[in-house]
Design goal:
Radius of gyration of chain B: 27 Å
Largest interface: A-B, 111 and 108 residues
Number of strands of chain A: 0
Strand content of chain B: under 5%
Number of helices of chain B: 14
Structural class of chain A: mainly alpha
Number of strands of chain B: 0
Order of helices and strands of chain A: HHHHHHHHHHHHHH
Order of helices and strands of chain B: HHHHHHHHHHHHHH
Shape of chain B: flat
Helix content of chain B: over 70%
Largest sheet of chain B: none
Oligomer: heterodimer
Structural class of chain B: mainly alpha
Number of helices of chain A: 14
Distance between the termini of chain B: 54 Å
Chain lengths: ~325, ~290
């Protein structure tokens, strides 16, 4: 999972047709002067310039680079058609990064289930409720590089994890980050530790907006906690769960920081984004890197579109 | 006549069973909460203990053992001076100040234009902002790099500032939701008094946006303070390092000196912890409104 800013958001999907149909602007009572007509654009200017310069121009460039063999430096670039895309899908070492994403996807599933569990039990009265809430949420606020160092120390030989296991009488002698079979499990575990709090707080917020009468009614009917969860809580927070699933999928594909700092993305731990950054900046393969980014963007747009189909845009009442 | 009695019996049975199970459930609930707290705290606690240890203690001692001297701050001094953390905090503060101010001003003005004016291509503009939310910044970074380079901003502190301002569409939405809640009659009253649109924005709308500003400042502040990707790509010079990239560089010179690396990590975490403890309620609210709107 990545943070909030990079994920797609639960906003109504724009209808492309709406753009074509120029708004039937409110008929002006008097002649609108040029100055009046320009006023809204003056307020929008800065936002639009930034939007175009840092979102639309890069997207357009990225798509055009992806059909060239550009190295990112030289002035000349040749059009190579879909060669980059063919290479991407036929070279096993490039394709491997999708497999790594599966570890993070599995971790995200665990994360959502655990977050739902803690949000549910903390919705009901619990001692030290705010303390537990703070403890569960705090890791989300910590700097990613600091988290990476904390867990480098946690997983290192004779580090925190080994010491705790030794205390419990186990001496597994694993290389948590050096073993190719284990490294992605260890790293995706870090991502659960780090991002659980966000899901938890989002779920908790949604659950607390459920009217108390519903809970009271359920209590009168003698419903068990599980029944309350299934028939009252889960349906009320469905939009937020839908959003979390989307963020989980796009987040699993865009993992960068933790594996990059912890293992430099060597060997088995290389993720999609690490691969892209390495191709672009270390190996000067701008064309191929752009093709990878286009594929990633296409997957994320596709997932968002499917999610909107499955969960129509009904928002939680808040 | 039997139906109510059986229902009654079933209810009693359920009650008895529930009464039996309740202590077990409560114990399990607290056990799971305590276990989760240990999982959260233990990695952080060991880093804190390590940051107070001397090199000799590190070589000899067990990870979980307490430091001999709880006030051994020499690692912090090393991290602060040799790790150039002071410059890093300065750079981060500079970037935070400008990018947050910019986000608040630009975002609220754009939201004001969208909410309070009718103009040609309005739907196109709104659609452009919406579609942009679907584009994850990480996918376009390679191409964005070229744009920043072409503008001559590579390796300056203005590159991250502009990128943080430019990618923030969330702020526009949050402001838009709040402006929608401000009655238009307030604008009209001001207009009758002869106020122009900018005066209305400045004296009517903006002061009423305080809760939205708080939300945006918190969400943006945490994102910028913690971001690694953008400063790593755009500000490679060590003297322009933010706390993320400066901390990242600890791995080189301090190699296996975990006591110094730990001190650096603690230095970066402490401001977050203090602000979290002070602003808890606002932070939770910020994240719930930020994500759901």
């Amino acid at each position: 999972m990545t943070d909030l800013k990079s994920g797609p958001r639960a906003e109504p999907a724009p209808v492309p047709a709406a753009a074509a149909r120029t708004p039937a602007a409110a008929p002006p009572a008097r002649r609108v002067s040029w100055a009046d007509r320009l006023t809204p654009w003056a307020y929008l200017a800065a936002a639009l310039v930034l939007l175009v310069a840092f979102t639309y121009v890069p997207v357009a460039n990225m798509i055009s680079y992806s059909f060239t063999d550009w190295d990112g430096v030289s002035p000349d670039r040749d059009f190579v058609g879909v060669d980059n895309y063919v290479e991407l899908f036929t070279r096993p070492d490039l394709f491997h990064v999708f497999f790594v994403s599966l570890f993070y996807l599995a971790a995200a599933a665990v994360q959502i289930v655990v977050a739902l569990y803690f949000a549910t039990i903390l919705t009901f009265r619990t001692r030290f409720r705010n303390l537990f809430k703070g403890l569960l949420f705090f890791p989300y606020l910590i700097n990613g590089v600091a988290v990476a160092f904390v867990f480098l120390y946690f997983f290192k030989e004779g580090g925190t994890l080994d010491s705790v296991l030794a205390l419990l009488g186990a001496h597994p002698g694993q290389l948590w980050l050096g073993d190719p079979d284990l490294v992605n499990v260890s790293l995706s575990g870090v991502s659960v530790w780090r991002f659980l709090g966000l899901n938890f707080v989002l779920f908790l917020g949604a659950m607390q907006s459920i009217p108390a009468e519903l809970h009271e009614a359920a209590e009168l009917d003698g419903a068990t906690r599980w029944q309350v969860f299934r028939s009252i809580i889960a349906p009320s927070i469905r939009p937020i769960i839908g959003l979390s699933v989307i963020l989980a999928i796009s987040g699993s594909l865009s993992v960068f920081e933790i594996p990059f700092v912890m293992t430099r993305g060597f060997g088995e731990s290389k993720t999609f984004v690490i691969q892209t950054v390495k191709l672009a900046f270390d190996f000067n393969k701008m064309g191929l890197a752009s093709a990878m980014a286009v594929v990633l963007l296409a997957i994320i747009l596709l997932i968002t579109w499917v999610q909107r189909r499955l969960v129509p845009d009904e928002r939680a009442d808040r | 006549m039997t139906a109510p009695t059986t229902a009654r019996a079933a209810f009693d049975r359920r009650e008895r069973r529930a009464a039996l199970l309740r202590p077990v459930a409560v114990t399990l609930k607290y056990l799971s909460l305590v276990a989760a707290s240990i999982v959260v705290l233990l990695p952080l606690l060991t880093i804190f203990l390590t940051s107070l240890k001397t090199e000799q203690e590190m070589a000899a001692g067990d990870t979980l053992s307490p430091p001999r001297n709880w006030f051994n701050l020499s690692n912090y001094a090393t991290a602060f001076t040799k790790g150039e953390m002071l410059a890093a905090f300065g750079n981060t503060a500079f970037i935070l100040l400008f990018s947050i101010t910019g986000t608040v001003v630009i975002g609220s003005m754009a939201a004001y234009a969208i909410e309070r004016f009718t103009f040609r291509f309005k739907k196109l503009v709104v659609a452009a902002f919406l579609v942009a939310t679907l584009v994850p910044a990480v996918t376009t970074q390679v191409a964005t790099f070229k744009v920043v380079d072409a503008l001559g901003l590579f390796d300056t502190r203005w590159a991250p500032i502009l990128l943080y301002m430019g990618t923030d569409i969330v702020a526009i939405y949050i402001f838009q939701q709040f402006i929608r809640g401000i009655p238009v009659s307030l604008d009209e009253a001001a207009r009758i008094d002869g106020a122009g649109s900018f005066k209305i924005y400045r004296t009517v709308i903006f002061p009423l946006l305080k809760p939205a500003v708080a939300t945006v400042v918190i969400i943006k502040g945490i994102t910028v303070y913690n971001d690694f990707y953008i400063p790593f790509l755009y500000n490679p010079s060590p003297e322009l390092g933010t706390i993320s990239t400066s901390l990242f560089r600890f791995k080189g010179p301090f190699g296996a000196h975990w006591e110094t690396i730990s001190a650096g990590a603690v230095l970066v975490i402490v401001p977050t912890l203090v602000l979290f403890l002070v602003l808890q309620r606002f932070i939770y609210n910020g994240f719930t409104t930020g994500a759901a709107k």
